[in-house]
Amino acid sequence: MGLLDILLGRTKPVVPDLDQLFALPSAAVTLQAAAGFAPTGDGAVCFATVEGAAFEQTHREVQALLDADAGRTGPPVELSRDGYGYSWLVSRRSPGELPELVNDLHAVNSAMEVNGFGPQLLCSLAGFADGTGRVLALVYLYKRGTFYPFAPLPGAAERRDGALELQVKAALADDLRIEQDLSRWFPVWGAPGL
């Protein structure tokens, strides 16, 4: 980064560090102790919609890779689209299989990246719920290399529980690289599993 970049306020883009995803299982222990949220087993990778043979081949590769998991039940990865035009590759595991879910998310992200779809990757998320029906997701921002909590209010159309999000941010500060710029805590309405 040069002097001109500093003067013009340009920043060097953060290189995605997909290995940050492997911090989720230990963060889940902290999250359960601090706020009573346990993994749901649902996770997803969000990306700008891609069409064509190259993406179909990548999707088949991801399916084959996750099919190799002998302990897996159900479809390895489902492809869905939300109302905002984004695509989601969704992995569903049992609630006790968070490490395996993280492996799935890492594999999907890596396959997309290796096959040239890195610029389309937006985020990955893992779902959590408490005993009262509240849900939240820990969202990994691919282009920032950071996490943030997203907590939609139950029964409310596109409203968030900001207090819960800040509580989770404080609880996980030592476990995850938390996004400090709150304006980048984008809502993921329509995310599978939420």
Description:
There is one protein chain. By secondary structure, the protein is of the alpha+beta class. It has one domain (15-184). It has five helices and six strands. The protein has helices at 3-7, 24-35, 53-67, 98-117, 162-171; strands at residues 38-48, 78-81, 86-92, 121-129, 135-141, 146-150. It has a six-stranded antiparallel sheet with strand order 2-3-1-4-5-6. Strand 5 (135-141) and strand 6 (146-150) form a beta hairpin. Helix 3 runs antiparallel to helix 4. The longest helix is centred in the middle third of the chain and has 20 residues, at 98-117. It is globular and about 45 Å long.
List the helices and strands and how they pair.
Layout (H helix, E strand, L loop, with lengths): L2 H5 L16 H12 L2 E11 L4 H15 L10 E4 L4 E7 L5 H20 L3 E9 L5 E7 L4 E5 L11 H10 L23
Antiparallel strand pairs: 1-3, 1-4, 2-3, 4-5, 5-6
